[in-house]
Structures
1.
Amino acid sequence: MAIMHSTDAVPAFDLRVSIQGTDPEIWRRLQLPADLTVPQFHLAVQAAFGWEDRHLYGIRYVDRKGKPAVLAGPDYETEEAEAAAVSGVVLSDLLDAKQPGRSRIEYEYDFGDCWTHEVELLGAVDLAAGELVCLEGASRGPVEDSGGAAGYTRLVQILADRNHAEYADADSWVFQLTGQSGRQFDASAFDVQSVNRKLRNLSLQWWPQPLTDEDRDAVLRPVRWLLEQASPDGVELTKDGYLKPAMVLRAIEELGWSNMVMGKANREAHAVTVMELREHVIRWRLLRKLKGRLVLTTAGRRALERPADLWDLVIDKIGRPEHDAVYLVTRLYAFWHLTGIAPPWNRKVEAIRAALEAAGFVTRSGHPIPESWASDINQTVRRALGCLHLMEARETRWRQRLLTDGGVKFFLEVSQVLNDR
């Protein structure tokens, strides 16, 4: 269930949204503010069904005069369409709260595959201001570009039969699009908590909330933890300048990083996240090496005393990278995390390479950016962000990790710094 923003109640609609032609039916029950704009409604439905916002969308409804009408969006891509623009239209313009069970609209996504979502008004409700809620539903959303309801049904049937003549092709295609093999793909899976987390992240962007001490401290916990270990007399290092095994083990246990290590995990080489934390805190000039110990700098002592200063420093370090390519990829990560729409793990480097090429990046000899360079830049950004607690804990390997409240607020501030560059 989404966390309430406020005790103030606003008029809202209780909606049942189902994808036409799916069997078993794919559906969600959503409660959304009546004054939600159509573009916001579009993004809420995208989040609820796991769509990736790759295509145009439209809404069919009956206007107040009883005449059929059509809206199409986004506005900047549908100027030539024979439909009205979506901007300025809200849900209460399309649905009549006085006619539950009879008032309905159709939301169509992807005019090629024609995913028609039937939106039925179950009734009017009061909702806490700024809240978006999914109460229940069934089945994961379809895979993008799978050929509409009939094509997706056939895909699911093929993946359910490993002896099917087309299983290998379907397995490869699904892996490319989702990062999951055919054996891992579960068409019946539905996680209401993940849907509500996505909706919560949207609401925090549409109706921003102030940063709380709890949000800030949770995000900065790994950095503050290492600074606290170094206070007041420093942390003893190995002769090669690494954290000692006992300290590595403490970091893994106390920071919840046990699923990110290999082997015994009592060496930085087996716990890369711990190594990256140490290196970044030194790079950010919060700690320094002195006579075989890791000790606080003046900035590090100030950061411990004033956590708000540490927040600003980390925002600045992440949002103002030295290299243009790292800047571009940081922007990509901010977008991916805030929208909840990102390439699967097996296509992320490919997406980064394509973005770098589109922005005009080439090697010194004028050749396209090689995949190894894109991979290195990806690691640079990932490892800096990995020094922070931005994401919810992963309950299963294949569950998408989503931002916490503090993570959303962090990336909103980072995005502002990036945009000001």
2.
Amino acid sequence: MKQILQNLKNGATEIVEVPEPGQGRGQVLIASRRSLVSAGTERMLMDFGKAGWIDKARQQPEKVKQVLDKIRTDGLMPTVEAVFNKLDEPMPLGYCNAGTVAQAMGHGSGAMGLKVGDRVVSNGPHAEVVCVPRNLCAKIPDGVSDDEAAFTVLGAIALQGVRLALPTFGERFMVFGLGLVGLLTVQFLRASGCPVLAVDVNETRLRLAEGFGAETVDLAKGTDPVAAALAWTGGLGVDGVLVAASAKGDEIVHQAAQACRKRGRIVLVGVVDLNLRRADFYEKELTFQVSCSYGPGRYDEKYEQAGQDYPIGFVRWTEQRNFEAVLEAMRSGQLRVKELITHRLTLEEAAAAYDKVLHDPGELGIVIEYPEKIGTAPIFPSEEVGKNGTATIFSGEKKAAVPIFPLKVGVIGAGNYARSILLPALGRTTARLAAVADINGVAAAHAARKFGAGKAISDYRQILDDPNIHAVFVLVGHHLHARFVCEALEAGKHVFVEKPLAITEAQLQQVVAAYGKNGTATRETETAPHFPAEKRAQPLVSPMVMVGFNRRFSPHTVRIRELLAGRTEPLTMTMTVNAGFIPPEHWTQDPERGGGRIIGEGCHFIDLLAHLAGASVIKVSAQMAGGNGPVRDDKMSILLTFADGSVGTVHYFANGAKSYPKETLEVFGGGRVIRMANFRVTRGYGFKGFGAFRTWRQDKGHRAEIAAFVEAVAAGGPPLIPFDEIVNATRASYAAVESARTDSAIKL
């Protein structure tokens, strides 16, 4: 399908052929009929893209600080690469879409009230087919055209601003800025029985506002908006102001405050600088509020992605219910939008005309028209592993793995980790990237184009079913790792899965069972990144499972293992992780999606200490900061006891400074000490002939890990990490969380 994308590096807009999006749980697949260009937002994005590096930095000073902190901790080059990778990501444009339901919905669709062929609005982008969560779409009533319906999302933005202003019949309101949102705001205020004074510099927009029942102030003629507002209200001041403009500086907010009566209300719907002047608000006890997009639910992942609606008795107007209210206002004639349309473009015309139209002084409502099409996108199932830990496993013939040259791989998941770490590392190996799959077709297409994949797809099953693909990289959400590993094993594929292997014991047991049925038997092998050549020739009889415990493969870890070779006594080890704060509502903190931070990331460090000890974890005792109460595993100390008598402590803290190094390792034993700082510098104390080992950049072992995996699979070598070690580290992470919860030691 075709979709409009923008390059954030240079601001260029283009129409790109991408896979149709896959459909996840609780999502609606929609064949687009119309979409509306949000001129203000999209013009801002284009201008940002065209700006030089210095101007980009000036526009986002908070990002500059993050970059400087990252340089101090990770080094210059990794930071530069991260910034360029971020800017290289294509930006889907648009969020005002009207179309028809193209495919039956996934799990739970029966209660969603939609069927194939229904006309719906959504916040979908400019694309022939879009996929959105159910709570972000609404059914279009009879009597509302596709053209009108395309204004629904912008209408919801305007309506939410009006709701926050709390207008009552007869109150006088002022509206700054008469773009689409401003003109829609005027109409909602008039429908509420409020006289409106509309302010702008564009004569055409002022005349439209007058047609909607507003009185106007033409700033182009030098009229003072404050004086006009005071004259309009007999010197009392307006009851409230809605700022729907986009402007630099704080002058508009200052004028809004001066125009208000005592205890007036100001609501910001647009984008202006917020250097508020205390005197403006102090003297009149004004209230100021920033409106958040479409309404309650916006940016709430549980509402938008998980489909958890707010009870109507407590939250009357959610973003979806605002959509429905806007559509009803259109149907009843209270909201007029047809006269706001100034340009019509076909999808094919859009890219070439985009820049010109957006900067046309006469632009207002720009409607993109799509050809009639019913989407046929394959379903990308996202059904979660059941409560009992079972997972659907695709049946397939068990295939023997033999030495393969060249190795062909498929990647499932094209998120940030895939694009910034794995795919660049994979490109340095002899493997051929046959396919990239992602439920987000744009992400799949971008990754495939950038890294030279044979194809981009939204249905991962095409990778599992392809007999020419030998190995699969699973880079999807944590809660799906176990399921996809099981399916890949059953399909006879070698599997590289990012950590964690599974987020629950039930899921882990499912993987163990699938591995026992289809996987490689554990062998006594050297687990260093470069195993002996004579062992490389040993063919595998069945698929290998590899978890992305990359720190094992760092040159710093390799050097530490060499320094520890031949030791005769147990080790004492301390791993301090300055993990950084992540909001509680982030998906990594969700036990059902991310597993929490210890299971989701802390497993890295448990595995690293086990690798250095050369022994499995046999007992875990953990304490979290904060005492009794819900388990918050982002500030935890974990004591590990190993089978050889070694002990290790993982301090995983989210309450430190970002400028401090993230990972510090200390190893004590035999009268010697090793200290590794952030995988950049390793120092030895008490060693003859060794003082320090440095790498010119931070190296956590990603490249060596990927290269070793490709070599092992292609050459028929032994598993890089014995499966029982992977399982042990995974179970130890579960034990850490359980120990903190129960305040007791857990034996494995």
3.
Amino acid sequence: MTISVSRRAVLKGTGAGFAASLFMHTAPTLAAETQTHSGDNEWTGYTICDSCNHMPMCGITFHAKGNTVIRIENWKEHPNHFLCSKGIATLQRLYNPNRLLYPLKRTNPKGSEDPGWVRISWDEAIKMIAANLNAVKAKYGADRVLFYCGDPKEPRPPVMRLARYFESPNYGCESSVACNLAYVHAEELSYGQEIAGGPSPKTKCVMIVGKNGSWASPHGFFRNLLAQKARGIKLIVSDIRRTKVAEQADIHLQPKPGTDGALAWGMIRVLVKEGLVNQPFIDQWCTGYEELVQYAEKFTPDYVEKETGVKAEDVIAAARMFADGPSAMMLPGQSIPHQHNGCNNVRAYSLLMALTGNVDNVGGSSFDDWPKDYIRWDEGYTRTFIDQQWFNQPEQKAKRIDREFAPIWNEMQVLCSPNALPEMVKAGRIKAFAGFGANLLIWPDPAEYQEAVRNLDFSFATDYFYRDETHHDMDLVLPAAMNYERYAPFGVHGRKASARKLRKPVKPLGECWEDWKIALTIGAAVTGDSDRFFGGDPVKACDSMLNDWGTSYAERQAMLPNVNVCEWFPAPQKGKFAKGLLRFDDKPGFRTPSGKIEFFSSIQAKHGQPGLPVYVEPPKPTKDYPLKLINGTRRPYITHSKTRGDQPYLLELEPESVINMHPKDAQDRGLKEGDRVWMISPYAASKVRARVRVTILCQPGMVDAQYGWRGDQETQVMIPRKNWDPISGYPCCNDVCIEVVKADEEKKSA
């Protein structure tokens, strides 16, 4: 089946007036101007949808006349060749009349109701950025500038290169704020690097933890899962919600919110007590087993049932099923890490792999086989391109803004955590902000971050649209090209590769530049070294990496529409830890300080934290706030704030904030499907509006919501800027207790 959507259908379906009415914050100077197109010949190009929050994954074939995309459809040769509702709506975003098309400069003082935006040239904008960043560097030091990359994720490589050669160690991104890097961080503490992965043909059992891939990755993930189920794989799902993935499970473990760590330790105890561990593997390749056995003792099945709500017999059955492997594990990207003890809870789950010996074995969880110098996260760049060694130097780590806020993260991760931005600005640790796709709504209590930006010496951001919540008090806003309008970067999908963007992109509307070009041009301007930044050319920048593997952007481009196996990939191997293929010194073992899998983390202990991934009870509901809020959940057709403001098709599916609530909780409050409600939090000065959906998706005593709505629907105001996870520095978006009341029955205390 091929899905095809035309530009005519987009425009006919919405109308410019209707589309514009859905945008709340459009500066008067941002009126779109029609791009002049020429030529009647139809041609075909290829791009990747970037509507999801993970790296762009799904292929789009587009047809254009002149410089106008007239129709899009599935890219059938691409590994991810189906488009969901978000992918189908990307053409609507491209031609949205509210696109930001020209560089804008503020003319009124910060804090003014009207920023006084005026259109300027790119030459003026680049000179202004270079002058201000270099002034901050000369007066305070390069480490007083924070470089940040939000969404889209593609410009991370050149932005990080810009930070490196500007000599600022403070480069952060969406993943180091609140996305999915915390679960990788948890795995690195135990294994030295990311390991958890999906099932393979030899896998007998797979355990999926807190991951609703049927919504977050609606095509590849769920189709693969169903295929595995069809061949007879056993499936354990640990998830607080009754998701579509959970409904496929042989055993669905549904713990109370925040109690995942207790559940994981309960399974660990069963493995130990019943002799289901792989003792030879533990003796040779692991450390801290004695401490683990001692700590696990209290997590009896009865205790775990009382603490988590999961039946004792289900805990025992799940542990036995996982031990009867080979077994693989898929850990959560965002759900569990967004707790005050999230990283340790993920670590506890991850130890099940080591205890059973399902580590880089046939059918178990494996370390990936990547080409030389390749970085798995933020696909499409290398350690050399960003000079990762420089960021990892102790003298650079000592200058980073997260050294006191998140010391374990600071030691282990090359990306800094900017979550304490307001405090850093108040302390004078940050004087300037260089943002690429920055969105202040990602943080708890966004007003704190808006004030921080207001108090900076200088700030700018690139974006597709003007977003008042983020841009209002910045000095410059720069127009970014969209996925149909840009080349960079190349990308890897599994073991296949493509020139990730376009074979022949349409010309960007107005004066939009792709983010790679913006970052590279700024880099040349602030350093005076154009060659180091490839003359601002994104294709040349990609070639600097691809050439090391004996290929080029043009060569990969010529293969399109086919997406071919990467010849430069090493042949897949198992047991890499025993062959010296994991450690940088080529010795057998793992990338941990001990060279072994660490049940007891030496790094956590060094920083005054428990070495074991201990369980910490979550905040308990109270009489006034009896419901646990899960904030930041997904819908299959919405990705937080990024797909709401600019794709009216998607807003037709869900035009306002909707929270999910169990039927019992709704009945207790006299609520029915579709009722307007207020959410009340002890941490919010104002109540938050939503409509209620009554569903068994949620268990009693919890509600789930999406963040990224604006105005009185913004749920992030209910999340406190405290109780950051001490291991990762992540916010506790899933640890807040609230109350929900009917809109006409709001509490006076609100």
